[in-house]
Structure formats: structure tokens, C-alpha cells
Amino acid sequence: MKKLIISSLSVFLISFSVIGQSVQELIDKVDVNRLELTVSEFSGEQTTIVNGNEVTIINRQHVNNDLAAQYLKEKLQLLDNLTVVEQDFNTYGKNIIATQVGKTNPDNIYLVCAHYDAVADYCADDNATGAAAVLEIARILSTQCLDNTIVYALWDEEEIGLRGSNYYANYAQSNNLNIQGVINMDMMGYDGDEPGESGDNVFDIDVRDLHGSLVIKDNLLTILDDYTFNLDPRVVNPGTTASDHASFWNKGFPAVLVGESWETDDESIYYHSSADRLSTLDLPYFHELTKFVAAYMVTKGGLFSVDNTVSSSTTMLTANQNAASYQWINCETNTPIPGETNQTFYPIINGDYAVKVTMGSCTEMSDCISIATLSIEESVSDYFKISPNPVTATLTIESSLKTPIFIYLYNVSGQLVLETTSNKKKSKMDVSSFDSGIYYLKIKANQKSSTFKVIKE
Ligand SMILES: [Zn+2]
Predict the structure, then answer these.
(1) Which residue of 176, 250, 330, 356 lies most exposed, with the fewest beta carbons within 10 A?
(2) Residue 46 sits in which domain range?
(3) Which tens digit of pLDDT belongs to each residue from 295-318?
(4) Among 371, 391, 415, which residue terminates a domain?
């Protein structure tokens, strides 16, 4: 995968919309402090800002969870590359759904979801954890170009009959949505075991042999092998139907549940009570589970790859990605070189250069490549001679070749400011109107080429 340019260019890169990274780099971005903060705000342990007001979201019961829905919507709307909608499905019911359209196969959909409604105050584990995990995965994946479409969904009215997810699954079936995998996260943060002991990191994957759901389970187990997580899986088959993934099973879509281990009686002892609070959660465990689901989503989303490698010769640099748009960058000044937007770039002077390659909304930056063997003449080269230098008004260019010469004048930032040709042995060039300073004059004829550093007074 592509390397990022670090150090001096990193500030510059921030302004780009999308920077490609590896699966592991993205897993590592899952931030336990952010997860904790979101659960704390979303379960009413601390105040937060919704609609511009400081509020406390203690209650997420379905008749009283407008603040919670608005909180989720605002968090998702802050992210790039997402379309966020509220899907109202009855008097109170509202799903919050954000879509990140795939660059290669936009019709292939992977869905990561959690319910956000609750049965009592707080309900941190059930299911502020799942909601926070969806937001965190969205925060990280939305910075990437992905082949497939990702839907981040937060369901309402799970607790009174999986109503939100059922409404969506019904809609998905009616509209023939090509949903290839659903990961439902419900209760992600409790790993109690014996009182006073840290948990065993066991978690459940609830699955049934329905509509390809076993493939998701297999892929999840592969991800556990391919990357390092402090987790111990239990595959539960036939898995529970008591959460939103069951809505997808019912409508013919592959789905699984990922969460703490009911199978080993290690679910929250505060389940469905207002004692289900942040302080009862095992945050490192919650962090690992979120990283794990993020890894699945990145893998299935498919990191869209823009080739950011460059081929170089002594006189030119060529971006290896075809059919893109290009902007060559002077690495020493961290600035784009005006007009240098072709796939191939001929530097005028020695230096370090990079290219920003953009395909659609996906941009990647190459490494900086050094060009060190260009020679810069003062006034005489093998075939050409210029005079006077410094010059005030008229530059005389003499050629010893019989073929036409092509003349290019660049300013100090590499921008072409004058271009002309000549058939004469001795040609005159009026530079009186140019600002004083340093210019580079490149003269080419057939395979011969020389570059002169010209001082304009
Ligand atoms: Zn729940």
C-alpha cells in the first residue's frame, strides 16, 4: 500500500480530501478515548452539544429520543463523503442512515449498524456502545475511498420489536438493494467474569445458516487470524433473533450479530436497567471489538487504490497511474507547480518533486523524488549560447544546430511564462516586460536540450 509523505509535507496533506491507508493503519485509528467520550455523552453521563445547545441525553426511550437521533445525525454530518438521512417510519420512529458510495461497485452494499433506542436511563452498554462504534467506524472509513458502498445505520425502536431495522430491511428487499453483509453491534462493552477480575475477552458471533450469513462469520474469523486482536470468539449457531440482524435474516439478507458473550453468561449484569452505566464497561474490550468490526468493514469495503508511484529518468518524472488528473508539487516549497498537470513532468531545475494523483474524489500523493542531474548553464552550453546575462531588455540566443529550436522561459516557481520557436542561428527575445528576478530558459532541439539560469534586471 501507499506510503504517506511525513514530516514537512504532512501539514500540506491535511487539505486533501482523501488519503489512502492500509487496513492496519485504519484499525489503529480506532480511538478508545473517542469511544468513551461518545458513550459518555450519548448515555447522559456528561453534557454534549445538540442543535447548538448544551444538553444531557439521559433518555433514549423511543417516545423521548429526538435529542439522541439529532446527536447521531450531527456527528455523521460532520464527516466527509457521507450522505446522511433520517428515515421516519412511524410517529416516533426514526432511523439515522449515512451512506458512503463505493467508487468501483456502488451497488454492492455492506452495512454496519446498531440500535440507539433504550429501555431505561443511561443504558451505556445497551446500546450506546454499538452506536458509538458505528460513529467511530464511520469517522475512520469516511476518510477513505472504498470500492463498495458502506451504509452506517442507527436503528430506532429495536427495544419494542426491531421496528427500525425491520422497516429498513423491508425497504431494502422491496428496492432489491444488493446488501452483501450486515454487521449488527448490540452490547459491546461488558466483559465482567468474576467480580474484580478483568474479563476474558470472549465475545459472540451470532449467526444462522441463512442467506450467506455463514460467509460473514467465516470472513470475521479470517480477520481475527490476519490481524492482531485481544479477543476470543464464540460462534453461536443458531444465534439469537433478539436484535436487529434478525430483521435482515427475515428479508433474505446475510447478517450477523457481534457483541459481548451471552453464550458464556458474560453479558452485562445491569442489562435493561438504569444501572447500565459507563463505569461498568470494560473499555479496552470495547475498543478491541470496535477495531475488529472496523477491520471487517474496511476489508469488505475494499480500499480503492490510486497508484501513487512515480517512474523517473534523469530528466523527467512520470506518474504511473493512467487516466487520472495530476498536479506536480515542488517538495522544497510544498507548493503546486503552476501549469504542471500532465502525467509526465520535465523539471527545469534540480530538486525534489512529488505528484498529487486524483481519481474522482480519491487523491493520493507520491513520495518526493529527487532530480539531481540536470545541468544549469550560465551562458554557454554545447550547442547554445545566450547573452547578455544578466539581461535588461533583449536576450540573444545563438544555436549551432541546423534544426529549429524550441524556447521555454520559466519563472523561479517553475511556471512557464513564455514559449516560442525559432529557425534562426541567432534569435532575439524581448524580456523587457518581465519582472526582475531569476528565470530559467530551456532550449530544445531534437534530442538536445540546455537550461540556462537567467537574471532579469
Ligand atoms: Zn440492545
Answers:
(1) 176
(2) 21-301
(3) 999 999 998 878 889 999 888 999
(4) 371
